[in-house]
Every structure is written in C-alpha cells, then in structure tokens.
Write a structure and sequence with these properties.
The complex is a heterodimer. Chain A has no helices and eleven strands. By secondary structure, chain A is mainly beta. Chain A is globular, with a radius of gyration of 13 Å. The N and C termini of chain B lie far apart (41 Å). Classes of the chains: A mainly beta, B mainly beta.
C-alpha cells in the first residue's frame, strides 16, 4: 500500500492559464474523489469516479473544471482559464466501495496559487 | 442538508494535558462520523470512525471519540497529549448524497506547548 499520491505538490500559475493535476489512488481502490480546501476551511467535495465513470459533480465544479479517469486508475483534474478564486489545495482521495466507501484515504494535495 | 460545526478554531494545550475537541453535526438520519488529522505537508489521515454500535470508539494514536445522539455531538478526546499531536483536526459526516462524499467541519488547529 503506497498510499494516494498527487502531482505536482505545488503549482503557481498566472491568471488565465490552464493547469492540470494528477492523482494516483491506492491501486485496488475503485472510488476516487476530488475535494477542494481553502484556507481555514475543511475539504469540499468536487467530484467522484467509480472506476472510469464520473458519477457526480458538485455545483462548485464550474465549466472551467474537468476531471478524467480514463482507465479507472489515475485521475486528472484540469482547470482552464484559472482565476484567483481557484487558489486552493486540491485533494484527492480513494476508497473501496460498499461500507468501506467511507474509509477515504487522502493524498497530500496539490496547492494551487493563481497570481 | 447535513453540516458539521467545530466551534473551536484554535486550541492550545500543554504536553501531557488532556484534550477534547468538539464536533456537532446536523443530519436527518443516523450519521456516519469521522475524525481526520492533517499535518503540514501531509494528507488527511483517518483517526477513527463511527458507523453504529458502541458509542465510544477507539482510534489510532491513542484518540477516542464518543457519539452522543441527544447532543448531536462526536467529540474527540485524548487523555495525554504529545507534542507530535500538534496538527489540524477535522470532523466529518457521511453519507452526503449518492456520491457518499464526506462533509467536513472547518477544522480545529491544535497547538501543544512544551
């Protein structure tokens, strides 16, 4: 069990640029979640995948955000035309299904700073 | 809609002292409850969880939490705090819809004095 990994750990970008983050979940986990965490707040749900299918998206996920999990393994989160309000920590989590879906294992996050 | 309230933004305790972090939730049915800890540069780590049964649950690192339905609370406790416990602690509740995502409180930052 190597844990959930996320890359990059930090990203600084200029407003209007596109950014992409990657998440590698625990290998046997078929559920993958993306959360966003702003300063002084707890994580907020963005979207989740069951295997390669994206099954739900939060209203927080504007049209500038897109997430994929093409082969049911790693996932990417892309933000187009970044805005300063996108500055946050983006967290990925993975889990099994059934009752163990609630045992979500989090990665260290990608901290995005939009200047 | 479900919600989680952590009334204490910041708590300071001396090493060796006891600790209690408060968590109140709002949820229409029996909730699943969690405590996570987040250290700088580290991911959120699950400390303990409550699904059903015994209302006093034991977790890792010597932490425990007690579910009190009448008070809608799930407070985290530790009898003797270690300097390495300094971190941010998050209470969370699930399920939060078909995604089964977690709803988190805003966190309590714990400082441990030597």
């Amino acid at each position: 069990d190597t844990g959930v990994s996320q890359n990059p750990r930090h990203k600084i970008t200029k407003r209007g640029q596109n950014v992409t983050f990657r998440c590698d979940p625990i290998s046997e986990h078929n559920r993958l979640y993306w959360y966003r965490q702003t300063l002084g707040q707890g994580p907020e749900f963005l979207t989740y995948f069951q295997n390669e299918a994206q099954l739900e998206k939060s209203r927080l996920l504007s049209d500038r955000f897109s997430a994929e999990r093409p082969k049911g393994s790693f996932s990417t989160l892309e933000i187009q035309r970044t805005e300063q309000g996108d500055s946050a920590m983006y967290l990925c989590a993975s889990s099994l299904t059934g009752t163990r879906v609630y045992e979500q294992y989090f990665g260290p996050g990608t901290r995005l700073t939009v200047t | 809609a479900q919600s989680v309230t952590q009334p204490d933004i910041h708590i300071t305790v001396s090493e060796g002292a006891s600790l209690e972090l408060r968590c109140n939730y709002s949820y229409g049915a029996t909730p699943y409850l969690f405590w996570y800890v987040q250290s700088p540069g580290q991911g959120l780590q699950l400390l303990l969880k409550y699904f059903s049964g015994d209302t006093l649950v034991q977790g890792i690192k010597g932490f425990e939490a007690e579910f009190k339905r009448s008070q809608s609370s799930f407070n985290l406790r530790k009898p003797s705090v270690h300097w390495s416990d300094a971190a941010e602690y998050f209470c969370a509740v699930g399920p939060a819809g078909s995604a089964r995502q977690l709803t988190f409180g805003s966190g309590t930052q714990l400082t441990v004095l030597p």
